[in-house]
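Support reply, case 0932

Customer input (verbatim):
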Amino acid sequence: MEQADHGKSVLESPLNPNSEESFDHGATLSKKLICDKTEIMEELKMQMHLAGPLVAVSFLQYSLQMISVMYVGHLDELSLASASMATSFAVVTGFSFMCTGDTLWTSIWSKTESHAGVYMQRAMLVLTFASLPIAILWAFTEQIFTTLKQDPQISLESGIYARWLIPSILPFGLLQCQLRFLQTQNNVFPLMISTGVTSLVHVLTCWTFLFGFGFGSKGAALSCAISYWVNVFILAIYIKFSPTCRKTWTGFSKEALENLHSFLGLGIPSALMVCLEYWSYEFLVLMSGLLPNPKLETSMMSISLNTSSVVFRIPYGLGSAISTRVSNELGAERPYTARIAVLIAIILAVMENLFLSSIAVAARDIWGYMYTNEVEVTRYLASIMLVLSISNFMDGMQAVFSGIARGCGWQKICVYVNLAAYYLVGLPSAISLTFFFQYGGKGLWMGIICGSGLQAFLLLIITMRTNWKEEAKKAKKRVFASTIPTDKAS
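Our regenerated output:
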């Protein structure tokens, strides 16, 4: 768990100091690859060291909601459809809002470690206030689903499940702040350990509430809040007493109340960047409820979306790692190293996404039984798994490109990219293929592939045409704009 020395060495010294001085934006990438094999191997080691724990943390953290849905799915088909829809709605309208601010976190850390603790407090304050309107929205889930012409029984049960998820909003938001605080210091192994312990606690808590106390689906939802609080307390104790956080956590400070516009300036576009994509997937679930046999269609769509979310945890962890690496290197004015990091991340993403898609196709006949014993649902899921694997590949690639974008501070650009990709191409294609060409639930996924594919392509073009020297200058400006006096910290 003691990663401070390693993280410090990674952040304080470039892979090759002379490379930054001689870096020419016009130089061909292939030439640099030939000349700098040692640097490439060093960068690969750094990314694997950072990405491995982050992938585990991302997967384990999402597993809490997945485990709850899996438990509920073994009650009956209605409970599965309702819990899946409520969870999907909660993710796109609440949980996704809490995952913001990557760029400023890592840029600040690359220049001065004393800003990290104050920035974490500022983020906690903003997300605490943000949890109130989210809670109100979740309280009216049933009415929202009914207005959108969803099945009355599913709407009722989804509303109940969403209301019991409300206590999980605040601890989830606080947890995201702690994760970013440690992640930007390359101190990721405590995250992996605490999240692993929390996942084990959640398995026991969820089973106890669901079957032991007989709370049903309500118990599965409530267990998420308990597990998130367990994780928050574990990390709070570590941050308070660990010597690795002595310089970054100096106690609570009134400075956290100042300069909120820096967080909101990148936080709001970052939230929109993520939510525009998440909302488009939520529309898939809602549209599946308009098809014949809504319970079957909603169950299939919810399981396949849940499956995609599980698979997405791996490229998302890689995206978080490259976001940290790029923002750190740009903030430290090392554009050449940032460029090499981006190239390696793209290569890793292609290999990893091909591997995961192959596994999804191979396991298509058995995966559905993880969620339900309904044969009709599992067969339907198996029939769309090939299309789903293609969607997962596209989504995995854009996860890494989005990580690069967050690291460079391109959130505002990505808002327009996501808006065009999903709302001008993806959703219209899904509607046409599903309702006009009669492809059913498979058409929904075929349409969204068009959107995610366009998103990945546009972000690739933006990344390939980037002037990394200019990005380093922009990162420097962001750091100075967020400078916080630390001598008042208490």
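We compared this against your earlier run and they match. Two observations from our side: The chain is about 80% helix and 0% strand. Residues 4-249+256-481 form one domain. Please reopen the case if you see a mismatch on your end.
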